[in-house]
Amino acid sequence: MLVLGLQKTTLLDYPGKVASTIFTGGCNFRCPFCHNRDLVFPPADAFSFSEEEILNHLIAKKKVLDGVCITGGEPTLHKDLPDFIKQIKDLGLLVKLDSNGTNPKMLEYLIQNKLVDYIAMDIKNCQEKYNDIACMINFDISPILDSVNLLKEGMVSYEFRTTIMKECHTKEDMLSIAKWLEGASAYYLQSYKESEQVINPIFSSHDLDTLQEFVNIIKPYIPNTNIRGVD
């Protein structure tokens, strides 16, 4: 595992839980609005944590932690992810995984072997705009569709989420996403926020009224739709 970051304690990353967040390096998308530039493009001198360092931290803190959030980058790029998670589960901790959904076989393996307790999958945009927003050429969206269908089977707790930007997301896009994800257990619209780590800081956020309008469009299809990231 290439672990490039560790947040020792968070109340935000794992809903309703006290957790540590582990950041893996590398991603197969190049989303320009991503706020984790150094995880997508790790610098040559990037500091990495050994698995032993991570596990020693979790052992020391497991009395106050409920679980661990594994995010990135894209964690499912790492073939040793299941073995790493098993060591965390053996400590009695819950595991939440953040993923872009491009590796449904890995997700299925983790679910079937009870190695994850919660999955948050990013939905970049409507299907027609995936190539553009993820900056991919001739990207095959079928793995994304497979991951969506897998999560909707309900074998593990999950949510879908979309980072919303004025330049990228319209009412028509929201309706298309809603029809695609219809029946999902939870969907969150995350308001875009500028940061020093954004890959290409050319985006802006919708106002709260527009975000609420998007929620109203989606709710007939996904009743548990909410907004995140608005102060």
Total of DSSP H or I helical runs spanning 4+ residues: 8
Catalogue the unreliable spans: none
Structural class: alpha/beta
CATH class: Alpha Beta
Oligomer: single chain
Question: How would you sum up the global shape?
Answer: globular
Q: Give the tally of β-strands.
A: 8
Order of helices and strands: EEHHEHEHEHHEHEHE
Short description:
This protein is of the alpha/beta class. The chain has helices spanning 37-40, 51-61, 81-89, 104-112, 130-133, 142-152, 171-180, 208-218, and strands at 3-10, 19-24, 67-71, 94-99, 118-122, 157-164, 187-191, 225-228.
Q: Describe it for me?
A:
- The mean pLDDT is 93.
- This protein is an alpha/beta fold and 231 residues long.
- The chain contains eight helices and eight strands.
- It has helices at 37-40, 51-61, 81-89, 104-112, 130-133, 142-152, 171-180, 208-218, and strands at residues 3-10, 19-24, 67-71, 94-99, 118-122, 157-164, 187-191, 225-228.
- The protein has a single domain (3-228), classed as Alpha-Beta Barrel (TIM Barrel).
Main features:
alpha/beta; 20% strand; TIM Barrel; 30% helix
Which SSEs are present, and which pair or pack?
Blueprint: E1 3-10, E2 19-24, H1 37-40, H2 51-61, E3 67-71, H3 81-89, E4 94-99, H4 104-112, E5 118-122, H5 130-133, H6 142-152, E6 157-164, H7 171-180, E7 187-191, H8 208-218, E8 225-228
Parallel strand pairs: 2-3, 3-4, 4-5, 5-6, 6-7, 7-8
Antiparallel strand pairs: 1-2
Helix pairs in contact: 4-6, 7-8
